[in-house]
Design brief:
The structure is a homodimer. The model of chain A has no long low-confidence stretch (mean pLDDT about 95). In chain A, β8 (about 280-285), α15 and β9 form a beta-alpha-beta unit. Chain A contains 16 helices and 9 strands. The radius of gyration of chain A is 19 Å and the shape is globular. Chain A is α/β, with parallel strands linked by helices. Helix content of chain A is about 50%, strand content about 10%. Chain A has helices at about 10-15, 35-40, 45-50, 50-65, 80-85, 105-110, 115-120, 120-135, 145-155, 165-170, 175-200, 215-235, 250-255, 270-275, 295-310, 330-340, and strands spanning about 70, 90, 95, 140-145, 200-205, 240-245, 260, 280-285, 315-320.
Chain lengths: ~350, ~350
């Protein structure tokens, strides 16, 4: 095993003392980078995701260009429904479509969970390749979608502002919803364990749509499955849970054995820290739209953010994925501001 | 002046003791009603909004069909940009388009605020007509969009999940953004005062997109203008503020002289009540997607909600507009469950 040259990110996850917070950005391997757009013009979405050499190249781009403190594997949360047997289409710039959305108990029963590792072998190969290419420069983050968010796409069949169809399914057929959530959870645990075995240093679980649920419904349809995943993975590597918008559950989330919790920008550091256990790291919470400001303003806002969270037990990040039209120099200003932070 | 036969809603706003909470639903005059769809098939959006007889007929439909405790005028928040001189197009089922979005200080300077009452005379006529037709059965609610939400549409030029363009405008040109927000605020105060003079018993201000702002940015770009509106209107009638998703500002919102604050479903009654002044009424917070459940389940969920909020200082409502595909009997089950509530 290669020793990590920059282990700031893992130290922050473990709660060890660090000289400054580590920094990375959600969707850092993405459309705002001209180098990414070049590959996108040549290869379609699934070619990029399923070709280990391409996934590896894309994963490395922000490490070389921005100098972030962690790499996150280029992939997609919808590889899980695909591995479970669903058709997933991805039209560039249009978002995903799952033409055969789940609607019956028969559909749920038909979902396969026995060949997850085989089906997603290309991800594991991409991880091995990326770890080798990184050569210990920074840690590599693996990830998966949270069961509730995956259910949202499986039922709705596409992206949505409110995922009403998915929520109706949960509210009207809670038993069937739980059957589905359990199957997704099992597949996800298998998948994340395989990612760890292939070499990732940490896993993040993205619950992009959990914030559409009331506190009660979050407990019922999301939290228990996040907990199951965290319990299964935390003995193997640090786990980051990011249930976007579910600020109301921070206290409970801090009791899931997760090493860190991600938060969006719609909460202050003080409000967040007041709810969580002292033994947990917070990750976030820069408004992605603020990266469209002047670099000087970005620097000021980053300083304000770190002043509020403090240097320890904190990972600087955005509160959601970086926007496609952010200038690279602004992304760099964000990263540099964290690196040059002085209290 | 006709005496109100049912003044439960106004009593709850004033904090007077009531035997049960009043109930109405956001977008209650809307697409889930077959009677509304019939008119929609015959008249386009702006014909419905700008013809006082049609607006009146639509406003009354849920009073007759569901028996709610308040009427809300059928109109749209985008009549304000229109009255200020912007073109607003509305394609059925597609959402609004403002083809000449604001982008420069010249655009802001060109917005007119001197003829708001004249431009929106059709609204004032619809109010007078509706008050007469209601004949004191229930109070009539007037409304407007909050300045930040109106700015969102003016800049973005259409609906959006994240309104990044509007937020970029605020963050990159705060001075110009404040000029624009001030103009919208002035126009909105004129408009709401005219609504009161025409007969509405209460006004609600919808900040549908304020939840996209961080707590700091909400203070800067939304709260101060909500406060200005509330200060100007509260001597004339009770004011309800509904900054959707801005749970983090409930304490400050309770100090704006508003009679009530609306909340969505992503917060518990306990969390909300803990933040606000005792002298303020809460309105909400049923998840609109829950109206797609079985009527028996709706009844149970309504009971849980009122148990949590208590009967006093509370107005039962949804946490957002009613969804177009809710069966009318489910909407009725919601209203009846509030009316039949027993502690």
């Amino acid at each position: 095993m290669t020793t990590l040259k920059n282990d700031l990110f893992l130290k922050a996850l473990k709660g060890e003392t660090v000289p400054r917070p580590p920094v990375w950005m959600m969707r850092q391997a993405g459309r705002y980078l001209p180098q990414f757009r070049k590959l996108r013009d040549k290869y379609d979405f699934f070619t990029r995701v399923q070709t280990p050499e391409l996934a590896c190249e894309i994963t490395l781009q922000p490490i070389d260009i921005l100098g972030v403190d962690a790499a996150i594997l280029f992939s997609d949360i919808l590889v899980i429904p695909q591995a479970m047997g669903m058709k997933v289409l991805m039209e560039e710039g249009k978002g995903p479509v799952l033409p055969d959305g789940i609607s019956s108990s028969r559909d749920v029963a038909n979902l396969a969970i026995d060949n997850i590792e085989e089906e997603l072998d290309y991800v594991l190969k991409a991880i091995a390749l990326t770890k080798k290419a990184l050569n210990g420069r920074v840690p590599l983050i693996g990830f998966a979608g949270a069961p509730f968010t995956i259910l949202c796409y499986m039922i709705e069949g596409k992206g949505s502002k409110t995922f009403d169809k998915a929520k109706e399914f949960c509210f009207a057929n809670p038993q069937l919803a739980h059957q589905l959530l359990k199957k997704i959870t099992t597949a996800t645990i298998t998948y994340l364990k395989a990612q760890v075995a292939a070499g990732v240093d940490c896993v993040q679980v993205f619950d992009s749509w959990s914030g559409l649920l009331s506190p009660d419904d979050f407990s019922q349809f999301s939290l228990r499955y996040l907990k199951e995943i965290s319990y299964a993975l935390s003995p193997l590597c640090p786990v980051i849970l990011f249930p976007k918008g579910s600020w109301y559950a921070l206290e409970e989330l801090s009791k899931t054995r997760a090493a860190a919790i991600g938060i969006d920008w719609c909460i202050t550091a003080k409000m967040a820290r007041a709810q969580v256990d002292k033994n947990i790291t917070m990750q976030g919470n820069f408004d992605p739209a603020k990266l469209l400001c002047d670099p000087n303003d970005i620097e000021k806002e980053v300083k304000k953010m770190i002043d509020a969270f403090g240097v320890q037990r904190y990972i600087a990040n955005l509160g959601h994925g970086i926007l496609p039209h952010v200038p690279v120099e602004n992304a760099k200003a964000f990263v540099d501001a964290v690196k040059n932070y002085k209290a």
